Amino acid sequence: MKHSLDFINLNRPNATAIISQDGQQITYQQLAHDTVEASRLLEPNNTIFIIAKNDYPAITFYLAGMEFNTVPLLLSNRLQAEQLQSLIMQYQPNFILVDKKRVNEFDGFNIVHERKQYCLLKKNAATKPKLHPKLAFLATTSGSTGSPKLVRFSKQNLISNSRSIIEYLAISEKERAIAHLPISYSYGLSILNSHLIAGASIYLTNETIMDKSFWESMAEHDITSFSGVPFHYESLLRMRLSTMNLPKLKTMTQAGGKLNERFLQKMSQLCEQMNVQFWVMYGQTEASPRIAYLPSNKLKENPDSIGVAIPHGKLWVKDREGRDITSSGKIGELVYEGNNVCLGYAKSLTDLNNGDENKGLLETGDLALCHSGLFFLKGRIKRFIKVFGNRISLTHVETILHELGYDAIAYGSDDKLNIAIVGNLDIDLSKLKFNLSELLAINFTAINIKTISRIPRLESGKVDYQCLMK
Predict the structure, then answer these.
(1) Are 16 and 26 a contacting pair, CB within 8 Å?
(2) Are the C-beta atoms of residues 283 and 292 closer than 8 Å to each other?
(3) CA 20 to 30 Å from 134, out of 145, 212, 426, 458?
(4) Taking the CA of residue 89 as centre, how many other CA atoms within 13 Å lie in the half-sphere pointing to its CB?
(5) Predicted local distance difference test score (pLDDT) of residue 388
(6) Rounded to an integer, what distance in angstroms lies between the CA atom of residue 6 and that of residue 169?
(7) 186-198 vs 155-169: helix axis angle to the nearest 10?
(8) Contact assessment for residue 256 and residue 289, using Cβ atoms and an 8 Å cutoff
(9) Mean pLDDT of all residues belonging to the chain
(10) d(CA 164, CA 334)
(11) Residue 228: helix, strand or coil by DSSP?
């Protein structure tokens, strides 16, 4: 088979690339073959929505799109029908890969292929969208909320970031990672990409760390690497991880938000006992997604640091006038430069024809300072929080609440979404919490709702968030 595949390492064609949850082992040669076969069902210069779990068919169609110029958008299978339909109306995909049980949600599409529990749908009246030549991949900006704002990437963006991750984590062909984070989540996808490019192995699962079988699979399949968001590590510290039989585990990585310093210290000590390296990382979807990392040997002395820029990238701090103040030690906006910075955003189908608007530079929206060569976050400029690894736009949450008929304000910190509603005790807060949990695809325990008599405001008329937090 003579195909140039950038995401599939064919140096060892008979080596295991992917292990599915049912135990099936797929070699790199088979993965390449299945990817090419999937590409023949698609058409170049088109888009495909992939609504799936961490399953092999989803992987092959994602890779087929990336390798053969059908631009994929990976979406959570928890995305509700109305939110999905809004995205379809906005971006008019010609192809959709979806679970067979959801096929009746899509009017104007025909089934053109079936693979295990998935159907590939094609639009009846397909039209060629105008896509920029560099556009290769799309991602959502706000976790699983179905926000119409997407991030546009080139193929080089994802490859560049994957190679940097391979370099600083020293991912070799001998590594085997467990892919339990959704591939529709940028952190989860980066694990898949980096390991396949490195020629390592991936074990796909949709189990959670609370399942006994999850840890049995970790041992059975000789998993060497585990990745998680703060919620996972807070849970692991209650699960007596050190007593588990995980002889091959040697690397643990954490991203998706800031882990409490107390938990960081405990994880660092635990990993030291287990002879496991613990890496804390920082990133944003717009950077494909990794920006910085803190080596495990620097964690004890600097638990509040995001570390240094990834290989071949650059971090610096600017003031309000745009001047570089990194060496001053003062707080400013954190800026990242690198080949992994996305092309820009899209809010409609016509935006998919836009070129590279960022030119390799990303203003992160985070406040930071640099001390002794390490970077430290000091707050946020933009109104985003991360809840269990999902990046949530507080503005988007407020829009949802207003559409539901509530006068409300959203605020919070990582892993806690707070909502203040103007009203009285007649509002069924439990029901609203459950509805928001479904709409935002986050655990209802992360949502806190209270009623207030009025929205507190500053003299300028802006919302007084400090007052709300008190």
Answers:
(1) yes
(2) yes
(3) 145
(4) 9
(5) 77
(6) 20
(7) 70
(8) no
(9) 91
(10) 20
(11) strand
